[in-house]
Structures are given as structure tokens and as C-alpha cells.
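User: Sequence for AP-1 complex subunit gamma below. C-alpha cells please.
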Amino acid sequence: MLHRDMIRSIRACKTAAEERAVVRRECAAIRAAISEGDQDYRHRNMAKLMFIHMLGYPTHFGQMECLKLIAAAGFPEKRIGYLGLMLLLDERQEVLMLVTNSLKQDLNHSNQFIVGLALCALGNICSAEMARDLASEVERLLQNRDPNTKKKAALCCIRIVRKVPDLAENFMGSAVSLLKEKHHGVLISAVQLCTELCKASNEALEYLRKNCLEGLLRILKDVSNSSYAPEYDIAGITDPFLHIRVLKLMRTLAQGDADCSEYINDILAQVASKTESNKNAGNAILYECVETIMSIEATSGLRVLAINILGRFLSNRDNNIRYVALNMLMKAIAMDAQAVQRHRVTILECVKDADVSIRKRALELLYLLVNDANVKSLTKELVDYLEVSDQDFKEDLTAKICSIVEKFSQDKLWYLDQMFRVLSLAGNYVKDDVWHALIVLMSNASELQGYSVRSLYKALQVCGEQESLVRVAVWCIGEYGEMLVNNINMLDMEEPITVTESDAVDVVELSLKRYSADVTTRAMCLVSLLKLSSRFPPTSERIKEIVAQNKGNTVLELQQRSIEFSSIIQRHQSIKSSLLERMPVLDEANYFVKRAASTQATISSVKPTAGASGDPLKLPNGLAKPPPAPLADLLDLSSDDAPVTTSTPAAAPNDFLQDLLGIGLVDSSPAGGAPSTSTDILMDLLSIGSSPVQNGSPTSNFNPPSKAETKPAPVMPQVVDLLDGLSSSASLPDENAAYPIITAFQSATLKITFSFKKQPGKPQETAINASFTNLTTTTFTDFIFQAAVPKFIQLHLDPASSSTLPASGNGSVTQSLSVTNNQHGQKPLAMRIRMSYKVNGEDRLEQGQISNFPAGL
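Assistant: C-alpha cells for AP-1 complex subunit gamma:
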């Protein structure tokens, strides 16, 4: 079957099975012809075999026929043989070693066409061994008179240099001499060879810097100034491919070399000025010229010229040209940001482009252009565009705007205004860490809290469908609702608004109902309503009804909150005001350090703790602020912010727990005293988190505590098991043993003692009688004692005998506690306590931690 007939038969097949049958039949016929040694149709059979190979069928049985055809004397046979060699074999085939001798003979053949066949084959499948064997023949052909042979030899040299970089020095002189040729095919091959030599060897790079720059300048001038040549002309540009290759080689040679850069500055300026930009071929040359200018040590004027060319590209209708211009401008910012700034308006227009790839790249470039001088104008433009931008683009645009506002804001009021507007326009796209940072900032900006809650209230009336806006607004209304209703802290620019207590509750209730599917938002709404019940007592009954509606909610989190909050509103009026007081000022510096660490950003190793030395941390809002004094939360069992007398900076044996658990384990031994020998059980994963001072110090409103009057019972050293608290081999004390009375807490103002009693047969249960004594000369009123324990302990508090603590120790108040240690014998008791009371109508708060319980409780 003839070749054409076979192709027609295969194309006529309607199924894959028919095609396979035809191929099998033809392969069988070819095998038979090979076995018979048919000389007349050998090249036709190989042509068929190549077509079958391109269809994906195995043709390994024809490899040796390729070698036989190559060894034949005639040109037609060699042509098919070399073509089959390039298609059916690759450099990994062992049979390729057999063709090396034939290649060497053909490279020395008198027929230039046969030489060309050998060079093409060698340039496609050359292995390292073949490169070493035939490099001298290829090098000799670089001096051949025929330009086509020179061109193919140069391309073959590129393959040899890639396979064996050590051979680069053999071709350096020949490559430079080829740059003097007139034939453009030879020139472009020579330029490509020089580029490959520069990559392969530093010696070649230095040699070519000294010997080929002049030739490259001549080529570029001749091509730029040449008259119309139809054989090289593309859209009115003479040989743009040679232009581009020469510019790339110039970039390689001049990069990092001031002398070479200076030498080519003039020709680059000439190419950049004379090349027309109304055709794609001209734009390609201009782009390479700009990239070369940006890569070398060019003069500032030349760089400005290059950036202006990119600015013209941004006005082009072709999206591809605009995209590459934006990419190049992003690199140019590091070299000359001022020149790029001149095209800011054009770049801003690209942000509003219909093409999404142009929009995203322009937005990234514009983000790099923002500085302190233009941040307000650019932010305004971006926020205005945010209102009309596509939904698909809002997420990227919102993220960039938020980042710009946080990074460059020097004014808290401006920061708040921009964030409120972003929340109103695209609150559904604002990430959680952004609105968390906004809440932290508002907590610290006491003078702007009234303005913030009023602005958010008005925004919520208009844009209540934006999720992040709702969360921030309900949090603010819950914290600063009285500022909203009473127009407290009004700014000069504000106009008073009339909001009643009922209106404030209405807007939170509406948010609670609107976001019925969002657990986080509904949970925040419930917390806000609970706080408003304390801020606005007349609305308590209505709030109680709203909260109670979620008692049967299928979401456990909301159900639990609803039941607990209802209980607080109904039954705990005495502690509701203190429990629902305004949140303490959030630690702004610490928050941003943790946020940066969570995103794996590079942060300072100095922790922003109170009293730390060093420069203040620069916050994203631009204002340096020392962190506020810590205020412990009684129910926060994961950290201990209570002040301690000393802190050991040296690394302790258990310091790895600090990294593992993120807690502050400090040495609780008094200054100058011997360190405690007992192992701190509070290092347990479920315990309070850090070892307290034996007698907890009060808040900063009081003087430091005096020395303890009674010492705790000594605790024997025990081994900590990270998986199960204390070692299970610890001996259990007699449950009928008498336990000493301990001083659980003592400060300059208050002393607390604990006495213990156990019931026979119930070693886990302990009855504690707490006695409170006032050490000052002023009576304490509204005295409340609170306690918190780890999760493995159950605690029950009975009412105190009185809420008034007589002065000067004239009488005491008692209160009974019962604790059940579910891990008795494994983990001792641990407890955090907080006492609140009033002195002459002024609220006071003291807190501490008890870890000196007798062993065996």
C-alpha cells in the first residue's frame, strides 16, 4: 500500500478498533519488508512508520532501518533516515551510539545538503558523549563559506554547549567572528550562540564583553538605519527578531558592568526614540529595549525615557501590551519610583479596566505606588470605585484598600472614616483580622468612641446587609450605647442625632433576626443585648424576651448563650453591673504583634510589654502607644495577667512549655529568696496557666503587699508528666488527716484564710470555709468574692455571711465553698480569686491565685 493510501485508510476509519486493525496490518507489512531486505521501498516504509509513530503506536522495530538509511549513499535515503532518527529516537537510546560514525562522515561530506542534514540531526538529539566526539567537526563548519551551513552549525553549537558547558571555550572566537557576517540568518544564530556561551561560562562572558560589544552596536545601527528590505521586513520594521536577540545579548553583557552599560546607553536611546510604536513588531522591540535599560546601569534620563514608553503602552488598546507594561512598571518602581508616579492617573484608569487580569495587575502596581503624600487621594479614588466595581473584583480591591489604610494611616479619625466606608460598601468581603483590628483601635481611641458608635449606627441603618459592618456596629453599640443615646464626645464636624434607648435595642434586634444563619453575628448580637440591659435598665424586660427566643435554638452555642444571659438578667442583678461593665482597653500593640506572627510576617523580637526597653512599636494606624496596664479576667484560665513581684529572665527547665502553650510561666519566689522546689502543677494544659505569687498582689491602685504572715505547708517535690499532670506514683495522703488553716490571699488591704474539712468516704470532695478580714481603717461595702478553677474541678459557692466588711479587722465575713477534685491524687487543687468592693463609693478590685493548698485535697 502506498503512503497516501495508508493515510486515507486510517482517516476513513470510524472507530478506534478499525484504526488499530489498519495500523497492525501496515506494521506487519513493514516488518515483512524489513526482513526481506527490500532496498527499493525502504525509505517509503520508513515514511509510513513515522506517520504511525505520530499516531502514538510503537515503532521501535524500525530504529535499525533508520541507521541503514543514514548509512546509504543517496540524499533521499539519508533525508528519510535522519528524519526518522529525530522522530523515533532520542538521546537516551543506546542505539544512538551506532550513528556517531555516520554523523562524523556526513559532517565532512562534500554535499552541503547532506552536511545540513547531519547538523540538524545533531542539533536535535545530541547527547553529551556525541557532543564531545563531534565538537571539532562542528567548530570547523562555523568557518564554512555557505551561510546556511554556518547558521546550522551555530545552532548545533548551542546544543553542544548546553550538554557540555566545558566546551564553551572552543566556540568563543568563532562566535565573535560570525557577528561580522551580513546574512541575517547567520547573525541571529551567532547572537543566540553568544547568549548561550555567556550563560555557560563566566570566562566566555568576560571574553564576549571585550570582543563583541562593538559588533553588536554595528548590527543594531545597521538594522535600525537600513532601508526597506523585503526579505526581512515585518510591518515596516526591518528584522525585529534580530533587533530583539541583539538587545537581549546586550542586556546579558552589560548587566552588572558599568563600563558596558555606559557604552551601550547611546544606542539604546536611539532605538527607544526611533522605533515606531504603532505596530506590534515595534512594540516588541521597544519592550526589549525598556527591559534592557531597566536591567543595566543606565543613566537616570534613559530610565525616565523607558518608563515613559511604558506609560504609552498603558494607553494602547491591546490588553497584552498593557499587561506587560504593568509588569515592567512593577519592576521599575524599585529603581525610579518618582518617574512611575507620573503615570499614576493612567494606572488608576487601568484599575477600572474591563479585563480582570489588567485590573488585578494595575491594583498591585497602584498599591506599590502609595506613600504618605498620596495615600488620601488614592484611597478616595479606590473607595469610590469600590462602590461600582464588579462583585468578582471587590474582594481583591477591599483587601488592598484595608491594607493601605492600615499601613499609611497617621490619623485615627481618617482611618476610622475609611474603614467605616469600606465596611458599608463591601463589608461582606472584609476579612476577620481587619475588623478585629478596627475594634482594637476603637477600644484604644477613647476620644473617638462616641463618634465611632454614631457613625456605625447610621451606616447600619443604610447598609445592614454587610456582615462585617453588622458585627462591628453591634459590638460598638453594646460597649458604647450610652454615648450613642446621649451624644457623648461629639466632634466639631458632627451633627447631633436623636437615638433613644429603644432605637439602639431595635437595631441590634433587627441584626439578630436578619442574620439568622450566621452564628457569629447572632452570638455578638446576644452579647450586645446583654450589655444594653445593663446600660439601659428600662429595656431589660424587652431584652430578656428577645434573648429568650433563642433558648430552643438548634445551634448549641446560641442556645447556651441565651440560657445563661437570661439567667444573668433575671437572677443576678447584684453582679450584673460589674459583670457587664465596659471592656478594658485592649492591648493594641500586643494584638498587632500576634496578628503579624499569625501571618508569618517579620516582627521585632522585643515583646511590647509594659516597661520594656527599646523603641515603641509602630502600629498600623501610625501612632505609637504604650500598652495599657493589664486587667485580669477572672474566667480567663489560659493566661495569668496578675502582677508578680519578680520575673526570672533566665531560661528555666520548663521554658519549652511557654512556647508550647503560649503562657507566661514566671518564678514566684520572692526577691532574694530561695526558689521553690515544688513542681508547678499549673503548667497542666487544662490548668490556670502560670504560677502566681503566694499572696496575690492587688491592682495598681494599692501599695505593694506586705510580707506573708503565715507560710504555706511545704509541698514535696513531684515529677510532672506532660500527659497526665503529676506522676501516678505519688503517694495518697490519709483522707482522715487534719488540714492546716492557710492564708490564701493577703494584701495591704485584705486578708483571706481558708480552713478545710473532708467527709469520710469522699476523698474527692472538700468543704472550704473562707474568712475575709479588712486590714484598713475604712469599711468595705458591696463586697463580692468570686473564684474560678480548672476544668477537672467542680466548684460551688454559697452566699457570703455579709456584703459589708468591717474596718480594722473588727469582725470578718465568712463564705462556704465546696470543691470536687475529679483527678484526686493526680492533680492538687488550684484556684483564681477576685474580690470586688467599694470604698467610700469608689469601686475597687483585687485578684490573686492560690497554689498553696495542702497536699491531698
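The first helix runs from residue 3 to 12.
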